């Protein structure tokens, strides 16, 4: 791999152009038509075997090495978020109310860079590389699940993915074996009481008071009903009830999220959330409606592939062991099917003012991180398939 850093540096100006074009023209989940078209054109220019029809706008390109061997997939997600871009940068989003606020523009760019460089190395590869550009990571049911159901992993021996991460500085690569990201589920509750005059509460069934009890009791599930050595989070993020200061609300609605790593804990939490709602409403003589949404499963890195990724990452940047986080990611579906690993590449830089968190209106990345991710992908394939 002598000279790889120089080849990545030479390609960097082109990568910046790719990334900024994606950033200026973002597309929401399940709407990535023009993004797909750009990726198709690019992969065809590289001589890859391009395939669509993966249950959405996802697209793959297959690079066949000069000798037989395993097939390794590299994945990048494609979709943007329904957020108004508030940056003043020249490359800010040109689409009102839509922006790449989670780095997916950079993910595509790094995979394109890897595709360009690995195509030049075809004669030195014993095996195949599947460049997997996935639609709709940000919105359930998620593009990964659709692509798997369409057969995208057939014949694939392992898969790897990268997420740019502004909380970590450029030059760092963070990961761990085992649990890395949580299952991300959701729930919606409507409490149905009996409205009445604010001065006559005994003649009403106050849905807001019942909701307050539900929220308080939900917080005891983790602290008193989950093994302290396991992890879990229950958060109520939205509540709405009533519309007048002197009227007791008949109805109150709330929405929340449930995060966990362990399958047994995940199933138990779903059951207990509904039980808390049911019993609390029964205690006050109210009715309720309850809906539970099963989100992405926990992302569990495979030990062998994680160690391989760590060994390669040490040649590229500073490796950090990462503590598991409660964010969700549909790359988890791939890891339920085949071996693989997922890591975070630092993209923050306070000196450049790049500090906004993900999903923020002023989110941006230090584009130097594109070099790190691209080199990591290329070195990983050279390690796995080089001859």
TrEMBL record:
GO terms for molecular function: metal ion binding; N-acetyldiaminopimelate deacetylase activity. It comes from Laceyella tengchongensis. It comes from the Bacteria. This is Amidohydrolase. Residues 186-280 form the Peptidase M20 dimerisation domain. One of its GO terms (biological process) is diaminopimelate biosynthetic process. It holds the Pfam family Peptidase_M20. CDD domains: M20_Acy1_YhaA-like. Mn(2+) binds at residues 102, 104, 138, 163, 359. Keywords: Hydrolase, Manganese, Metal-binding. The Mn(2+) ion enhances activity. Its cofactor is Mn(2+).
């Amino acid at each position: 791999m002598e000279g790889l850093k120089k080849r990545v540096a030479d390609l960097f100006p082109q990568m910046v152009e790719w990334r900024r074009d994606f950033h200026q023209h973002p597309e929401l989940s399940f709407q990535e038509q023009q993004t797909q078209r750009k990726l198709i054109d690019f992969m065809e220019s590289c001589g890859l075997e391009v395939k669509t029809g993966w249950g959405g706008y996802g697209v793959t390109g297959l690079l066949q090495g000069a000798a037989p061997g395993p097939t390794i997939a590299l994945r990048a997600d494609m979709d943007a978020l329904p957020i108004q871009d508030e940056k003043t940068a020249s490359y800010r989003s040109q689409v009102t109310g839509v922006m790449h606020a989670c780095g997916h523009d950079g993910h595509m760019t790094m995979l394109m860079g890897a595709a360009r460089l690995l195509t030049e190395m075809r004669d030195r590869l014993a095996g195949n590389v599947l460049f997997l550009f996935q639609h709709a990571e940000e919105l359930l049911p998620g593009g990964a699940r659709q692509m798997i159901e369409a057969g995208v992993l057939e014949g694939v021996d392992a898969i790897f993915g990268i997420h740019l991460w502004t909380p970590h500085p450029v030059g760092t690569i963070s990961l761990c074996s085992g649990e890395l990201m949580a299952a991300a589920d959701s729930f919606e509750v409507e409490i149905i009481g009996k409205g009445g005059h604010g001065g006559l509460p005994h003649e009403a069934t106050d849905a807001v008071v019942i909701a307050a009890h539900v929220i308080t009791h939900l917080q005891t599930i983790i602290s008193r009903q989950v093994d302290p050595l396991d992890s879990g989070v229950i958060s109520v993020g939205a509540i709405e009830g009533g519309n007048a200061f002197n009227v007791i609300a008949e109805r109150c609605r709330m929405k929340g999220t449930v995060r966990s790593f362990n399958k047994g804990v995940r199933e138990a939490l779903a059951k207990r959330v509904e039980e808390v709602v049911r019993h609390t409403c029964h205690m006050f003589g109210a009715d309720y409606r309850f809906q539970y949404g099963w989100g992405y499963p926990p992302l569990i890195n495979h030990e062998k592939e994680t160690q391989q990724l760590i060994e390669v990452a040490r040649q590229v940047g500073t490796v950090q062991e990462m503590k598991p986080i409660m964010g969700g990611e549909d790359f988890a579906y791939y890891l339920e099917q085949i071996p693989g690993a997922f890591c975070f590449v630092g993209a923050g830089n306070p000196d450049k003012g790049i500090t906004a968190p993900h999903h923020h209106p002023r989110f941006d990345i230090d584009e130097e991180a594109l070099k790190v991710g691209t080199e990591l992908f290329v070195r990983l394939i050279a390690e796995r398939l080089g001859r």
